[in-house]
Specification:
Helices cover 64% and strands 0% of the residues. It is an all-alpha fold and 267 residues long.
Length: 267
């Protein structure tokens, strides 16, 4: 195999991301140490650039790892293929039941999301969140992901109880952020955690209707991560839907799908 020959990417990228985090390194710090342009590692880890053996070797050296570490099997490989790599840690933590997996998969059948992404790409194993983020500018991507995280933080405190499952699920989402948060952004996330958040700047943060739909799906998934949907969480999600001007028909469609998988009314 030549030095610039490409790997089978999915498994390799998952291992490289895991090894980087084990080494306690951010994407930005890795790029600085290897003298790569800003965003190079992000593009590699999101499979937007094909990674070569040479690039992978530099990363392994920096992470204090070897080739054998790169090819170790992932514990939840079959599940990752079924529901998307971003959910793998939630599966490992036992947060994702079969009904939750089915609900996550059903996001791909949301007509607004499907129309935005296209059936060909929806058939890939790439997570829906990433498919939608890839269609945004860098500024739009940052605005949307931050807004998503603010709403998730606020949802966690909607019932004045912070459950361990919800915190773990929130932390996983933050760990998969497509950029590093600056101090101002971290402060805004904290404020949303401390008080009820209903944001502004609708056109800037939600330039596509599909992004509104995905936000609602994710909020329901987060609310159900502990196995129940209470009326405080339901009321907050409905307030979010009204605030982002989601059509009532869209809200009712998502609610119907969610409750069909959950099998219960809000408690």
């Amino acid at each position: 195999m030549g030095i610039n020959e490409q790997f089978p990417e999915l498994h390799v990228l998952e291992r490289l991301i895991h090894l980087r985090k084990e080494a306690g390194l951010t994407q930005k710090l890795v790029e600085q140490k290897l003298d790569w342009r800003q965003g190079t590692l992000y593009d590699y880890e999101k499979a937007r650039l094909k990674i070569s053996l040479e690039a992978a070797w530099y990363l392994l050296q920096l992470y204090g790892a070897d080739w054998k570490d790169l090819f170790e099997p992932m514990e939840v490989a079959s599940t990752v293929e079924a529901i998307g790599p971003w959910m793998a840690p939630m599966v490992q933590l036992g947060l994702v039941s079969q009904s939750m997996q089915d609900m996550i998969q059903s996001i791909r059948h949301d007509p607004i999301i499907a129309a935005e992404i296209g059936l060909d790409e929806l058939g890939s194993s790439t997570p829906v969140l990433q498919l939608l983020l890839n269609r945004l500018t860098e500024t739009q991507r940052r605005d949307y992901f931050l807004e998503l995280c603010r709403y998730v933080n606020s949802l966690m405190t909607a019932d004045h109880k912070i459950r361990a499952e919800e915190k773990k699920a929130r932390d996983i989402l933050l760990a998969y952020a497509p950029f590093e948060f600056d101090e101002r952004e971290k402060a805004s996330l904290l404020r949303a955690f401390e008080s009820r958040y209903l944001g502004k700047g609708l056109e800037r943060k939600f330039p596509k209707d599909a992004l509104k739909h995905l936000l609602l799906w994710i909020l329901y998934i987060m609310a159900l991560s502990d196995g129940e949907l209470n009326h405080h969480e339901q009321a907050y999600i409905e307030a979010v839907a009204e605030n982002i001007e989601l059509k009532k028909s869209s809200l009712h469609f998502i609610q119907k799908q969610v409750l069909s998988f959950h099998g219960k009314e809000p408690t």
